[in-house]
Amino acid sequence: MRVIRDIESDLRRFRSRMVVVTGAIVVLFSLLSIRLFYLQVVRYDELNAQAENNRTAIVPIVPNRGVIMDRNGIVLATNYSAYTLEITASKVVLPLEEVIEQLSSVIDIQARDKRRFKKQLGESKSFESVPIRNRLSDEEVARFAAQRYRFPGVEIRARLFRNYPYNQLASHVIGYIGRINQAEKGKIEESDDAGNYRGTDYIGKLGVEQSYETQLHGTTGVQEMETSAGGRAVRRLNSSQAIPGNSVVLSIDIKLQKLVEDLYGKRRGALVALDPKTGEVLAFVSKPTFDPNLFVDGIDSENWAALNESIDKPLLNRALRGTYPPGSTYKPFMALAALQTGKRAEKTLISDPGYFMFGNHRFRDDKEGGHGAVDMYKSIVESCDTYYYTLARDMGVDLMHDQMKPLGFGQITGIDILGESRGVLPSTEWKRNTYKKPEQQRWYSGETISLGIGQGYNNFTMLQIAHAMGTVANNGLKMKPHLVREVVDVETKASTLVAKEPIGQLPLSPENLEVIKKGMIGVNVEGTSATSFIGAQYVSAGKTGTAQVFTVKQNEKYNAAAIDERMRDHALFVAFAPADDPKVALAMVVENAGFGAQNAAPIARRVFDFVITGQYPSQEDIEAVQRGQATRPIGKPRPVASVPWPPKAAELAAEEPVVAASAAEKAASAAAKAASAATKSASAAASAVAQKPATTSPR
C-alpha cells in the first residue's frame, strides 16, 4: 500500500527545527560575544597583567652577606661559593627514596646528608629545591653532569656559603647563620622587609649575625626573564643587581680574644673586658665554645646531640646568660654603698674574732682567729668577711638593693646581642613576687647577712659585674656596653661609628670613689692578688673572689679534694687598669677552679699586659696559667704586633670543640680556602648556669 507524505507538515517541522537551532546558535553566539566583551574589555587590565606575568618570571638575586671583622680589620665571618646537589621533589619521576639511592652511586651521600635533607624537605614546599649534598668537588660535578639525563628534578647549583675561618674562636660573639625555619618565615612574611628576603634561605641565628641581620643581609636584586609556554627562560628583559650587605666591625680584638680563650684552656668560665670610657667590649669570652660552621648547612643530629647534651654546655653563652654569685668581688661595691649612705666611714673600725654571730647562727670568716681590728681599707685588701656581715645587717636588704641597682646589678645592660640574663638582685619585693607560698615570700633577717659577701640570693652575669666595675673606674659615668664598633657601607665605604652616649652620671662622691680605688689598688699591691701583679709596668686595682656552689655545714671545713669537681668553688676576679687612667675594666669567673687569686687574677694580668703594654705571654706562660700553676708571668713575653696571624691550624684545633669529627673533616678544604680569602679581605677592609648560692665566702 502506498503512503502519501504530507509535505506541508514536513516543511512545518523542518522550519520549527530551524528556528530552534537558529535561536540556539544566536543565543550561544550572544553568550560568546558577551564573554569576549567581558574578558577583552571589562577585565582587560587584569588579564593583560596576568598574561604578562605568565610570559615573564621574576627571579630574585640573593645578595652577598656582609663580612664581620674585628677592630683591626681581621675578617671573622665571610662567604665563599660552592656547588650543591639539589632535588626538587615535585619534578622527580621515581619515588624519592629510589632517586636518592641511585644518586648515591654517583655522588657520595652520607647518612647525615639524608637526615638533613629529610628535615629540610619537611620545612620546604614541594616545588622548592632542597640540597642533598653541599660543597661538591669539581670531580663530583663532572661525574654527575655526565649522568644528568638519568635524574629529572635533580640539578647542580652554585650557592654562597657562610664561613667562620677561625672555627670556635669567639663563636658566642659572632654567632652563626642557619636555614630559615617556618616560624621565622612567618615573621618575615608579616614584616615590611618580606620582599627583601625573596630567595633567601639563611638568616642570622645567634650573636652579631642575629642582632645585625638587617645590616648584614643586604638588598635582594631581581631578574625579569621572558619564558616560553613550557616555563623555559628565553631571554632577560630587565634586572636590578643585588646590593651586598654592609661590613660590621666589632670592638673585639680577636688576638686578645684568642689569648684569653687559650689561657682558660679546657676550663669553663666567662670573661668580659671593656673600655670603661666608651663601653666598647675588648674581649667577650665564654668557655667552652662551639664551631659555628656546623650550623651553616643545618646541623646533623649527631653533632647537635654532642653539643646539646654535653655536661659542659658549650652552647651556653656564659658571659651573657650565665649567672653566678659574685663572692668577695662584691665587697668594693658594698663598701662604696656604705660610704654613700653613711653606714660606715673610711676609718671606722670593727673587731673581727673570725666569725659573726646572728642569733644562734655563726657566720664564719675564712681566716681562723679573725683579722683583728679592721677598717674599710683593710676589709678590702684582706677580704674580711666579718666586716661585711655586720655591714649587711646594718644596711638591710632593701637599702643594699637600692644602692646596687644604679650600678647595673640585676639589670639588663642593653648590650647589642640578644639573650641577656637579668640575674637576681634580691629585695623584699623581689621575694614576694618570686615565690608563691606565704612562708617563702617572707624575708628573714638571717638571709640578709650573706648578701654582704656576695652570696645568698645574689646572682649576676659577668657582663653586669664588668659594667659595674667600669662605672666605678669611670668615676660614676655609665656607658652602655657594645660589641659592634662601626658599620661600613658596602657602596659608599662610609663608616658609621656606633658611638654610644653615656647612660647617665651616678651621684657618687669623688672622695668615696677614691677610698674604694685605694683599697682595690691595695689588693693588687699587698693583698690577695699581689703576686699576680709583681713586675707590672702599671698600677692596677682589683678584687679577688671565691664563690661557693653549695653551703658548708657549720661543723665542717671546705675541702676541695674531697668533693666532686663541679661542686668546688668558683674563682672570680674584678679589676681595672691603669688605676689613674683606666683603659680596661673586667670581670671574670673560672668555674669550680677554687681561689680567685690563683686561677682568675693571673688571666687578668695577661689581659692588662696585652692592652696596656702590648705584651703577649710566652707559650710556656700560657700553658702554666692553663694549669693554674702561674701567677706572675714566666718566660719572655712577645710584642703583640709580632704574634703571627692567622694562627696555625694546629693552634686553632688545640682545644677540640664537642663535635663529631667527620663533619669537621668534610668542611676542612672549603674552610681553608675561605680563611685565605678572609685574610686578604681583612687588609683591604682595614684600610678603607645559675648556681644555688651559699652562705660563706672564702677569698
Automatic annotation (TrEMBL):
Gene3D superfamilies: DD-peptidase/beta-lactamase superfamily, Penicillin-binding protein 2a (Domain 2), Penicillin-binding protein 2a, domain 3. GO terms for cellular component: plasma membrane. Binds one Zn(2+) ion per subunit. Zn(2+) binds at residues 352, 365, 371, 384. It comes from Limnohabitans curvus. Residues 61-236 form the Penicillin-binding protein dimerisation domain. The keyword ATP-binding does not apply. Its cofactor is Zn(2+). Keywords: Carboxypeptidase, Cell inner membrane, Cell membrane, Cell shape, Cell wall biogenesis/degradation, Hydrolase, Membrane, Metal-binding, Peptidoglycan synthesis, Protease, Transmembrane, Transmembrane helix, Zinc. It is a single-pass membrane protein. The lineage of its organism: Bacteria, Pseudomonadati, Pseudomonadota, Betaproteobacteria, Burkholderiales. Pathway: Cell wall biogenesis; peptidoglycan biosynthesis. It catalyses: Preferential cleavage: (Ac)2-L-Lys-D-Ala-|-D-Ala. Also transpeptidation of peptidyl-alanyl moieties that are N-acyl substituents of D-alanine. Catalyzes cross-linking of the peptidoglycan cell wall. It is found in: Cell inner membrane; Cell membrane; Membrane. Its EC number is 3.4.16.4. The chain crosses the membrane at residues 20-38. SUPFAM superfamilies: beta-lactamase/transpeptidase-like, Penicillin binding protein dimerisation domain. One of its GO terms (biological process) is cell wall organization. Pfam families: PBP_dimer, Transpeptidase. One of its GO terms (molecular function) is penicillin binding. This is Peptidoglycan D,D-transpeptidase MrdA. InterPro entries: Beta-lactam/transpept (IPR050515), Beta-lactam/transpept-like (IPR012338), PBP_dimer (IPR005311), PBP_dimer_sf (IPR036138), PCN-bd_Tpept (IPR001460), Penicillin-binding_protein_2 (IPR017790). Belongs to the transpeptidase family. MrdA subfamily.
